[in-house]
Amino acid sequence: MGMLALPFLTQTKGFSAKIYATEATTRLGQLMMEDLVSMHNEFQHFYGSNSGSPQWMSWEELELLSPALRKVALGKDGTELGGWMPLYRSADVEDCVKKVQTLKYAEEAWYNGTLLIKAFSSGLEIGSCNWTINSPKRNVAYISGSKFHPVHAMEFDYHALRGNDLILYSDFSSEGVLTNDEHYNNFPASTTYNSSTTRDCSADNDDRILKECLLRNDESLEEREKVAFICSCAVDSVKAGGSVIIPLNQLGIVLQLLEQIPVYLESSAMKVPIYVISSVAAELLAFTNIIPEWLCKERQEKLFSGEPLFSHPELMKGEKLYVFPDVNSPELLTRWQEPCIIFSPHWSLRLGPVVHLLRRWRGDENSLLVLEDGLDTDMALLPFKPMAMKVLQCSFLSGIRFQKTQPLLEILRPKAVLFPEDLREQINISSTHSFPVLYYAENETLDVPKSRGNVDLEIASNLATQLSWRKLDHDDDMDIARLGGQLFIDRGKHQVLSGNKVSDKPLLHWGFPDVEKLLAALSKMGVKGSVEECMSDAESGSDEIVHIHEPSKALIEVRATRTVISARDERLASLIFEAIGTLTDGI
Predict the structure, then answer these.
(1) Three-state DSSP class for residue 158
(2) Is residue 371 part of a domain?
(3) Based on the domain organization, do 43 and 131 belong to the same domain?
(4) How far apart are CA 109 and CA 131, in angstroms?
(5) CA–CA distances in Å: residue 535 to residues 203, 237, 538, 547, 561
(6) 452: in domain
(7) Which end of the chain has fewer surrounding CB within 10 Å, N or C?
(8) How do residues 382-408 score in pLDDT, each as one tens digit?
(9) Average confidence (pLDDT) over 7-32
């Protein structure tokens, strides 16, 4: 879902950021974007395109909207109307994908020679990942929505996230789970792990502790039960002569339903066609059967036994499953049969084949519409009312349950954790944890505790032997030397190699010259001046301005961080520079 917005960024003038994504995510995201563009083109074909602002964006039309629709159009504070943008085109999608650097799991990518970036499976969906970003001063792990027991995707690789200085926790998906699931709210106290019990555990013991927590929360079993319930409801609908529309967004759930619904139909001795209608359906289903490296071990074992990774190729061969690009496909019209079960976009119920299908069956009380939780059902179904059609809304876990958060973090052992501000009141981290907990919010800067000191610098031996050390006049505890060379940063290492000679460089000065001594030094050179103004403030510190009167006009600004000489006469400027040099350190 996140990739759907990416073309809006990449087509922005001046955009030059580096984009990283896994190979599977990039391909699946590209197909989703292409499908969205295709549905939008179909919409324009029927209703016409509008090069200017849509009519509904006029204030006269906005005032006629219901409060809920007006909130969608204008935002919470009524200032987001200007944020609406025309949808991108196919060319924008192609250009966007070209700018993405794709990675495999655990593959190294170096950004600017300094940051080491790796992606590790999060278990949420095929290709979904968490990230580690290693720099010379801090190692950061980014945890997004993750699942410990995925049905299709590769398992959550939490081992790779251990031992980082900072964990940025950005799993917002479980925000409503805590209050919606009493079973998981009533855990016994033994599921709370503190640092005293986990800090000294070995890796094997860590796994044991985490598995104990997982055994109390078998999300994969819960997900399978929900899929089974959807299948039974679908079979009941077709038995009654109704049809089923499934515009779900989660690919993993769709793949499960495509495998399980035929099993339920066969056990009920029913022959009902299953249609998948989407402009990218054929490519999407074919892609899922050639990516074993992105799937769980159970799916990979099918490859070695000579079986397809998923069952939809066999279902298509057996004419139980049909794939069509759109509802107007001639082949679909010739094979059309009711009742039927249809998978088609779009989950918003505003674009795609689902709009036509809902208009066809909305008055059939035996038909069924399956939606995901989180969608405002009343708002989504508003254009299709009155509706006699049954609606089944299901929620699927798309992140880490709160009860697992603390045991997981104790096993990962970070030096600090950042949580979203929205979760401050909901999440309960034990006071005995071994890491500080901070909370971040949108558009706010957060100071994070420093993890490491200075960066190591390797100096070529021929340069190191040429360093001429000298004491600072104002600091006897510090030695300083001039170093001339070229700085190279590669794979996190900083090196200085031979470059221009030191003698080729101009003399460097530092320090805060005393104004009275400066006037005395200038007087010996025949230059007369006076201190005209003294200022002091919290930001700039003490500033002093010296006006030169003879032999010509000049200005000297002595500031806390620099001294500025302003003079039309180059010879006078050189004399002033020379005088300042006698009062400051230099190499």
Answers:
(1) coil
(2) yes
(3) yes
(4) 11
(5) 62, 83, 11, 15, 14
(6) no
(7) N
(8) 999 999 999 999 988 888 887 788 888
(9) 95
